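Sample pair:
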Amino acid sequence: MSASERSGRSHRWDNRYGQGALVTRAPLAPVFFRSELYRRAWSGKPFFMRRTSTNAVKIWAAAAALLSAAPSSAADITVLPFDAEFAQIILEGEIVAGDDTKFFEAAKPWPRASVVLLSPGGLVAEALSIGSEIRLRGFSTMVPSGDGCYSACALIWSAGVRRYMMPDAVIGVHAAYETIKGRDGKSEPRESGVSNAQIGAYLNTLGFTAKAIAFFTIAGPDEMQILTPAVAQVLDIDLFIQDGLEVITPEERPTPRRIAEQATRIFAVSVRCGDILGLDAEAVRAQGVELLKGGHDLFGGEMFVHLIPEYAERWKQETAQMKDPGWCLQSAEILEAEGHAVVGLSSPSFDCGRAGTVSERTICEAPSLWARDRVLAWAYGALRDHLESDVFEQVRADQRGWLARREACGTNITCKERVYDARLREIGVM
């Protein structure tokens, strides 16, 4: 009796899964999802997923009829070079055997690429292999307006290091299942736990949460889950919305997880970094409260019940492994990059109104140097207060030499960053 692996609304799944890939987790799993290794590790008949009808109720029957009537045609893979380093790779049509190899060959010359997807789905092994290649190479993915990106195609889209979709793009997902012939000779759909477990493992390696993985696999054979930007936000799936020339970033429409991560990091900064960064701890704490309150207003408080303790524990473990000054510096930089500069961290350690050199004025104009300067000033003061005077004289001499190197950087901010980092490592802060 032959069996074909199917998934909901007209999409074919191919399952060549073996036990080795079942147990792989990040960061090793993406390698095992490469097609070459699939073919070595997996055996058995292929399973399919293919879109054949817009009527979800009749999808699996229509797919079976189409597959028995005509062979599948491969996806079209087109490369549009923009310059010597970047290209747009367009994948359109059904994903069939060999398309992963075609994709590897098309992608091989390009250090950077954006992969545009319009596909009804196809073979899962090929989709996971293409997705793994995209993630390993650091490519972005995009679903434009048009026919949509369903099932196996959605798995490829998920792998982008930056995921884009247009506001009216359609991304459809649902559980994998197989069609079997009953005693009456009619095809019947049956969900496949093995295939859904493999899809879950793949999405887990990409950093998807349990609730996002459930969303991808919970819809039955005659159902389809549509992933909209609003749904993605609730599911903690970061994406960029491309609307013409305008791009809405994940920072502009944060997920509950992103809000929890940022708010709890700010709370930890208020507790651990007040003296080190010269901050008003209560003002910083109020910043975290305001951010979390905004999250509650957007998503409801219950969304954060488990997230807050999770991230509080993470920062506790991180600060146990790192020295507080290094963690505070790292956190200040992360929050600045994410659009939540720490309240009060608005200048270096010295009064910019009295900046007397070109180098000092450059520091005052470079936010990336402010936390570094404050941490170094705190460390220098701590050494002065705790070392014997004769020992500290050597520290003072070293600091003068460092100041000369900093001045020699002039207006070169990158040079100053390197000089600050070297001095922080030298005195044991980083």
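The chain has 19 helices and 14 strands.
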